[in-house]
Amino acid sequence: MSKSTTGERLYRYNVLFTDSESAWLDELAGEIEATTGVKVSRSEIVRAALAGLRELHRLVPERASRLAPLTNARAGSDLTLLAILAARLATADAP
């Protein structure tokens, strides 16, 4: 067990990724290093993605007319769709 940059304890878990997910994590880490010179681990990327989902989950009650609750998900693919829709909504040009 170690500590994160926030001082919270980190615990080891096994997470299964597809080949394409694993390759994308490596690609993103490589792009970050090439751009900033800083090495970012796969774990840091996954924790950042979780933080994004956590924030999305927190925002749903405030924006119920535009965002669907993550708790409506029946599978991981539903969570993926909800996250993608929220990202598209957040980056869409205003009418």
Characterize the structure shown.
With 95 residues, the chain is mainly alpha-helical. Helices cover 55% and strands 4% of the residues. It has a domain at 2-66. It has helices at residues 19-36, 42-59, 76-91; strands spanning 2-3, 9-10. It has a two-stranded antiparallel sheet. A hairpin with a 5-residue loop joins strand 1 (2-3) and strand 2 (9-10). The longest helix is centred in the first third of the chain and has 18 residues, at 19-36. The N and C termini lie far apart (48 Å). The mean pLDDT is 88.
Helix content: 40-55%
Classification by helices and strands:
mainly alpha
| Strand adjacency order, main sheet | 1-2
Write down the Rg: 16 Å
Q: How large a portion of the residues is in β-strands, by DSSP E?
A: under 5%
Distance between the termini: 48 Å
Q: How would you describe the shape?
A: globular
Order of helices and strands: EEHHH
Count of DSSP strands: 2
Summarize it.
The chain has helices spanning 19-36, 42-59, 76-91, and strands spanning 2-3, 9-10. The chain is mainly alpha-helical and 95 residues long. Strands 1-2 form a two-stranded antiparallel sheet.
Per-chain topology:
Layout: E1 2-3, E2 9-10, H1 19-36, H2 42-59, H3 76-91
Antiparallel strand pairs: 1-2
